[in-house]
Write a structure and sequence with these properties.
five-stranded parallel sheet; elongated; Rossmann fold; 5 strands; alpha/beta; Hypothetical protein af1432
Amino acid sequence: MLALSPTPAPTSEPMAVDTPTPPPGHTGAMLVVDDEPAVRTVLRHTFHRLGYTVDEADNGVDAVTAATVRAYDVLMLDLDLPRLSGEEVLRRVRRVSAAPHLKVIVLSGHGDADHLSGMLFAGADDFVTKPFSLPQLRARVSAAVRLKQAQDRTDALTRRVATANVELEQALSATGQELLDARGALVLALAKLVEARSNETGPHLIRLQRYSRVLTEAAAELPNYLDRLTPEVRRAIEQAAPLHDIGKVAVPDAVLNKPGKLTADEFAEMRKHAAAGADTLAQVRAASGFASAFLATAEEIARHHHEKWNGTGYPDRLSGEAIPLAARVVAVADVYDALRSPRVYKRGFTHDEAVEVILSGSPGHFDPGLLAAFALVHRRFAAVYDEMGG
């Protein structure tokens, strides 16, 4: 029978007498489907302690009903079920689930590894054989839920960007300058949604825009960029710059706001923001015929602002002129602001220290031509930082 309100375990159960109170914060919603009461009890107590809301079903029919009416983060699904097999539950849930990115982890005490692996092709996200290791199961569930929540955040971001694009399209009756001003305001508002999740302080996004303007104006006077940094291109780079880290919406809070140095795994998770942001902007651009050139610039910046001139950056290890010019501009601006800004784990650099790092202390990182332009106008960077209250 389906139990949408978990009850405490009997005193004879080995886990605990009372259902423990979840820790502050909500980890996720879980549906445990198994016809063995002891398995459900163990899983309920284990994940309730970790902050999950845990519902239960002891048969396949109730499992499908529950997944239809409630948006779960993860479904723990036994294959050997009464009334409806686990495989059929999986097929039906994938058609009717209230959560588009529901993660399904199959549990089974029977069947060989090949059969369980085949469940991945049927729509499962992972499988665990019984008897299972609770630490391993907790780790797998945690990874699955982090991915699901990141996908949910990315979907929400895509909808927001698409909505903003529609609003711009509806404003076509406005003058050209009014449209540009509206676009800039909407972009800044969207970027601030991401900034609000992080621990960054100060008007970082506006500073980034102003640095980009200063740098492109100076670079446009140099022969290498004379025909490439037209007023229209410079304006697009300036307005799109705040979207450089929009993919951080897909980065877990624990990684995004960690007050110390990231581990290798955490840094790998953080690096995903570049591709995630670009993918979101690409989806919006593909779905709309409006402002496609601007969105293409924003997409280039989001994906490639961590590339390095010598090819050691990420995510695509591009080098030299293969890196889009807009991304190269924002890379200089972003690093300068990051160096100047104090964090829990570091002091803020002085202007002269930041300039030394950029011009001499980061060989192979930046476009040499843009470094030449930066050398001419770096004092204006300092004025922007000081004016905007670093």
